[in-house]
Design goal:
Elements lengths: L12 E7 L6 H6 L5 E7 L9 H6 L3 H11 L6 E4 L2 H5 L2 H16 L3 E3 H12 L3 E6 L3 H13 L3 E7 L11 H13 L6 E4 L9 H9 L3 E3 H12 L38 H7 L3
Parallel strand pairs: 1-2, 1-3, 3-4, 5-6, 5-7, 7-8
Helix pairs in contact: 3-5, 6-10
Length: 278
């Protein structure tokens, strides 16, 4: 059959994505991407270290990022994104900026990181007070709090899971439960951020925005949004304040008797039973 009348495929615009070696949510990233954009993923080399501040530093070394970006140069992406939350906040704001510079030097294209994209998204939404959810340990979570505070944004509450591996296996119900706890621990959050590009969030964001009546941001969401913004296009997805202004509403009223900013790890019962063996 002659198919010459079909011509070739439509032109694609490329986003290069550097992800940590254990990143498992490629399909989630694609869900925010419009049809005319392609994602080209590469991963950092494997290191036998569990999720921790040490791992965050190892997977974000400039030489490692530069090598990863150079593997993408042959397919000429228009922007490169480093899809790792902890790896991009572990060095503070100055460290994040230096990572972008290193990637841009290696690829000669604009670069973004997950944590840089978070601050960009908070600015876009006018957020000055944010609640946090992380799957991380205490030390990694505190590092995120410090990074956000350095940007002049107040952390109003935080719930975390204390995990060091298999973060992509956390079910939506646990993510939603942690989100509710983080928002209600202190008054006045303007938005909620769910950290870690390996934590599934796509389908839970609309539910939480409707329930909590505030913007809900996630690591993968802000990464894709910021990268596509450099291309002059928008991420796609249902009922998300970051990409749909019609979804932007006021914050949820806080519950009385809020707890401390950084509580003891709050884990679902089955995770509490498993954590000691991981």
């Amino acid at each position: 059959m002659d198919v010459s009348f079909l011509g070739g495929p439509g032109p694609q615009r490329g986003v290069g994505v550097v992800a940590p070696f254990d990143f498992a949510l490629d399909r989630e990233l694609w869900r925010w991407v419009p049809d005319e954009v392609s994602l080209h993923l590469t991963r950092t080399p494997f290191v036998p270290v569990e999720v921790s501040l040490d791992l965050a530093r190892l997977v974000s070394e400039h030489e490692t990022l530069g090598d990863a970006v150079r593997t993408l140069n042959a397919i000429t992406p228009e922007v490169v994104a480093y899809a790792c939350t902890s790896g991009s906040f572990v060095g503070g704001i100055a460290g994040e900026r230096a990572m972008c510079e290193a990637m841009t030097q290696a690829g000669a294209v604009p670069s973004v990181t997950t944590s840089g994209a978070l601050l960009e998204a908070l600015g876009e939404l006018g957020v000055r007070r944010v609640a946090l959810v992380t799957p991380y340990t205490v030390s990694v979570t505190r590092s995120l709090q410090k990074y956000v505070a350095e940007a002049g944004v107040k952390v109003t509450g935080c719930a975390f899971m204390g995990l060091t591996r298999d973060i992509w296996k956390v079910p939506y119900r646990d993510v939603a439960g942690m989100a509710r706890q983080a928002v209600r621990r202190r008054a006045g959050a303007d938005a909620l951020f769910i950290a870690c590009t390996n934590l599934p969030t796509y389908d839970v964001i609309p539910q939480l925005e409707a329930e909590l009546r505030m913007p809900v941001l996630s690591a993968n969401q802000v990464t894709v949004w910021a990268a596509l913004r450099r291309l002059g296009t928008w991420a796609v997805g249902p009922y998300q304040a970051l990409i749909d202004p019609a979804a932007r509403t006021g914050p949820v009223p806080p519950e009385a008797g809020a707890g401390p900013v950084l509580p003891e790890p709050v884990l679902p019962e089955e995770e509490q039973q498993q954590e000691g063996s991981t």
